[in-house]
Structure formats: C-alpha cells, structure tokens
Amino acid sequence: MTPELTALALAGILQVVQYGLMAVPANLELGVAKTAGPRDPDRLGKPLVEQVSPRTGRLFRALQNHFEGLILFTLAVVVITLSEKAGPFTAACAWTYLGARILYVPAYWLGLAPWRSLVWAVGFLATLAILVAALL
Amino acid sequence: MLADELSLLLVYGLVVAVVLALKTTGMLAQFDMGYLLSARDEPRELPRMIARLDRALWNSVTALALVTPPILALAHRGQSSEASVLAAQVFLVMRLVYFPAYLFGVRGLRTAVWLGGFAATLVLYFLAL
C-alpha cells in the first residue's frame, strides 16, 4: 500500500472518530428521545446543532467540515495512485493533510484562533498540491 | 488529456476546490477577521451569494461522493470505453454549469443540469457493473 493510501485510510478512521466525539456529548446533552427520533422541524423547534452546547457544536462543525476535505482528498489520492504519479512529494502532502486534519479537531474544540483557520488552510493546500501534481 | 474518466474526475475535483477557495475569499470580504478566526459559536447568516455558493458546494460534495466509486472501479479494472468517457464528460459539463446556474439563480437550468449530472452518474454505475 502506498503512503497516500495509508494516509487516506487513517483519514477515514479520523472521520469515524470525529463522529464518535460529536455523537457522545450530543446524545448526553439532548437525550436519546430527541436524537433517535425522526427530527421533524415542528417537533425540534430549532436544528439539533443549535441546541447542543457551544463545545459540542464545534465538534459538529469540525465533522461537517471534514466531509468536504475528505471527499477532495479521496479523489486526489485515488487519481494520483491510479495514474502512478505518486512520489515522495505527494506522500509528504498526504501526511501533511492527515496531520492538519487531526490538529483541526482540538483547534476547533478549544476555539484556538487563528490556529484552526491556519491548519485548515494547510490541509486544503496539501490536497490542492496533490491534485495539481496529478494533473502535471 | 480529458479523454479518460480519471482526468475528468480530477478536473472536477480541482474546480470544487477552486469554488471552495472562492467562498472562503468571499467570506473574508464579508465578515470581520475576528469572527472568521473564532470558533463561530453564534451562527451568522451568510450573504445571499455566499450562501448559494455554500449550498452548491454541499451539493457538489454529494455528487463527488457518488461519482468517485464507479470511476474508480472503471479505471482500476481497465473497463473504460467510449460510452464511459462520454458519460464522465457529460457529468463534468453538467456539474460545471451547475455553479453559475446556482450562483445566478437561473431557475430551471440549475435543476436540469443537476438531473443531467445525476443521470450521467447512474450511467457510470451501470457501465461499471
């Protein structure tokens, strides 16, 4: 397995971990009756995301943000691997992406400014670099 | 270079990344830095155009997640054909038109190209199976 694919697999596991980190406090705060119900707007009052505590809300937004990041990273890794253009540079980018996305979670949770935005930008640029490397 | 499904997927991924960068740039222009860098615990309403870009991006994330598996399968098994390249080209064109159609609120067109992109995705699944 190439380093890029290993980083991709770990990024998938990170997504699962982020789900757990968000879901446990959200269920504790809102109660299973609310979270396990069909979540119809007229019964909820306002979206569940806005009913949780600020810290849990941050974990939710961090998870949502990683969906965008992960789909772009997935496609970058898949294309670079199948086109056999992977090399030390793209491997370094893949590990950078993974590191940035791991740091993103505590940075968001603790509300660290400007670090959350900075690590987001690092992860995004690392993905972009792989996409461009695949194109060249 | 746009003659194989992987390249077409790659181009679409780059376009989505560019639109994401555009949205981020737009937010820099519309909100103060303090709010943007904070954890944004108080949700603020996005200006109309940025909100449209935001919704178009979320829709693109779904489109990408759905179209990546069949393209990956076709490329990995070497099952590429004229039909599958055409389907991927149709997908790309539809999804490219989707952004301006959403941004400028072109009623009908946005829905039509969304349907076209979705149909092309289904054709790719059919060809991959």
Can I get a quick summary?
The complex is a heterodimer of chains A (136) and B (129). Chain A is mostly helical. Chain A has 6 helices and no strands.
Task: Kindly describe this structure.
Chain A contains 6 helices and no strands. Chain A has helices spanning 3-30, 32-35, 41-44, 54-82, 88-109, 115-135. The longest helix of chain A is centred in the middle third of the chain and has 29 residues, at 54-82. The two termini of chain A are 23 Å apart. The relative contact order of chain A is 0.15. Chain B is mostly helical. Chain B is 80% helix and 0% strand.
Task: Describe this protein with a few key phrases.
heterodimer; A: about 140 residues; mainly alpha; B: about 130 residues; 5 helices
Report the major sheet of chain A.
none
| SSE string of chain A | HHHHHH
The ordered string of helix (H) and strand (E) elements of chain B is: HHHHH
End-to-end distance of chain A: 23 Å
Largest binding interface between chains: A-B, 29 and 27 residues
Number of helices of chain A: 6
* Quaternary structure annotation: heterodimer
The helicity of chain A comes to: over 70%
Number of helices of chain B: 5
Number of strands of chain A: 0
Strand content of chain A: under 5%
Average pLDDT taken over every residue of chain B:
94
- Shape label of chain B: elongated
Rg of chain B (CA only):
17 Å
| Mean pLDDT figure of chain A | 95
SSE-based structural type of chain A: mainly alpha
